[in-house]
Write a structure and sequence with these properties.
This protein has 839 residues and is mainly alpha-helical. The protein has 44 helices and seven strands. The longest helix is centred in the first third of the chain and has 20 residues.
Amino acid sequence: MIRAPWGFGKSRVLDGWDEGDGRRVVRVVIAPQGATRESFWRDVAAALAGQGSEHSSLGDPRPAAALVEDALLAHPLTLVVNGFEHLDEQPSVEAELIVLLTRAPGLRVVIASRRETSFEDPRTRMSLDVRVIAAEELLFTTDEIEAELRSAGMAAPALTAVVERASGGVPALVKLSLLELSGGAHPTTVDVLERWLTQRLGDYVAATILSGDDDLAALAIGADLLDETLAGQLTARPGAQVLHAFERSGLGARERLVLEDGQSQAVFRFTPTTARAGRAWLQAKDAKALFGQRRSFAAWAKERGQPHAALTAAVDGSDYALASSIVMDHWFELGDDRPQVVAALERLPRVTIARWPLLGVELALCYLAMKDHQWRAAEVFALSLTGIGLRRGTASATEQLMYVLLEMVAARTVFGSYKQARHHADRLSRMLSEFPAAEYEHAHRVIPHAISQLAATQLFTGATQDALQTLISGTATARRLRAPLRAQYFPLSLRAGAHAIAGELAEAQLAIVESDGIPGQEHRHNDYSGSPARLAEAYLHLEAGRYQAALEVLARLHPHYRTIENIHLLLEAETWAHIGLDPAQGLDRILEIRKLAERQRRLPSYVTAHLDRSTAHVALATHRVALAAQYSRGVDVLGRVPAAILHAKVDLARQSDTDALGVLLRYPPARDTPLRDRIDHELTLATAHQRTGHRDSAVTLLRSAAASLTNAGLTLPLLGHRSIGHAELTSLARETGIFLPSLPDSLTAPDGSQHPAPPKLTPREIAVLRELMDNASYAEVSARLDVSINTVRTQVRSLYSKLGVRSREEAINAALTVHLLDDQRRPGGRSDQTGRTQL
């Protein structure tokens, strides 16, 4: 079964049909006019007679039965039928062919048609061996177009691309393109040539399919899809007859449209070439009629849950009120096809965006997720927020809710202000709790997304427990409002991520299963909305010591790393995996990705602080204490407890045990401190107590942390102590009979083998290195050591060469790694009388 619209080369395929096994091939071409069931079988019988059949059905009152007999006697036989769509009694002929195929196993039938047939029905295909060749399989590939151009003496990569884009690969249009180009009278500039060729092909198609003022196509060409209802509405004729006529004319094809509730319906879709050419023709002839058709289609598409097509059509028809309502109801789903949304909205004038700010917000959100477009997001968002301010006074409760939601998202994602985002989140939370019951029906699509984004703001800004509470209550609200399946996916994905970050692995596993089990959302699993669930999946691997498996899960999100909002959470998980496998590689990785993300947009201070903490952790794992200290300076925005833990770890790595003990005692865990941070605090404090001689306190803390680790199935807090106190804690646990979860064997080996023997530096080079560590300039080093600047440069080059580094930072890290200056170190890194830092 070959089914395709006009121009796809069905006849060309049938003309060369030969199965190469000696089978007889009988060909029948059905005429466009007056083709009945009886005439079809007469034509088949005549073709059989012409092929030398001994038994002809000519004159037989039962041609079908006669053909069965002929097929059995002339076995094997292949019947090739072209123009099947012209049959007036097509269903009857299809039924008889099915009977023939059932009774004559040696019979094969090849049918080309523009119309859908019963041979494509699943029930038929269960009883017969039916192969369907779809229109997409008949399109010319790039290589085939290039071969056609080469045979015409016009081979050029740029020309191949122009023909492919203008023709869409449709065989008839490819051939027509060659004829147009062979004349020579065409533009030579690529962009002008493409516009010219597109126009020429469009004129040809329009002249072929639009035959007059009363042409049915001119009455419905503004719709991308048609069902019988919409076709009847646009043409004022019976919809079934209209669709039948379009299909027979080859203007498009039938397909199944899946609706929001999972049901499907049959629709007709114009081919892209037909739609483009027909609309250009109608735009020039009657633009008002085209606008009306686009608006009617937009309303129809919105009702059937097709937001992308609806938005494009509404904008084409200048119905910005309808377009805004589409954005309000489907702003999250519109992100599934950002290029289409951008193509529809980016041509809008600035004054239109200011007047209809939701359109600008949707455009900005799409820019935000597109590489190298994030600077545009800030510009469009700023204009849209101005429009929101102007419309707020007359907005309904649902619109007010939407406005605050979008202001929160803008503050969080575009303007990089988590403080402002939390302010809007508090407002949004109050509005949700006070939302009028009478508005619930109107806002049933907005509220689930408002709850999800509120939880996302809380989760991404570190309020993990608040996010979980919001999501748990929001799940019940979404079910009560009968939210679409796609609106239920993101909250479940967020729940998985929040539970994993909080250290609640069992709950995270359940949320992953529940989110991934929502039908029709598979395309989201490795996208923005699925990233929290993938983060949770990675944490399950990390806690089990499967670090490579965690990296493989996170690798699915790598295409989004430059633009994804929760990059700080994803990179933190990836950093833990590298600490478990190769800490040095982890340090390079986080610095590289951080630089790429900062080129795309200004990162919020909270995100920067989170990345600083991850960098400090991996720096500690590679024994680069100075680098860890540098990145630990900006983490206070994460909260007192997380910042205190990191500062204490750096102090412990510096052997400033008393300082570590002091900062941890000053900032104990609060009631809402997540489990991971609570355990990390206890382990770090236990190490500090052990080193400062408070063994009993260390044992008490270690016993509490070990119980929490065992009950929750966590190991990452121990991995974070591998380079600063894991050996001491393990030894203390053995002495006191405390069961401490174990890390993989490769991670518990002594670290001494990682440090090569220090290179031999001259006293002058050591002195210069000390000054470099104090961040002194070459002039300052020259003055302090009483040597010339050229001598300083020579000494720097020499010590760089011996350390195998290329920069001051690398030299400092290398010196600390191999303990070059251990004899100069004082606890806490305190200053001597000259004010210089001693390490």
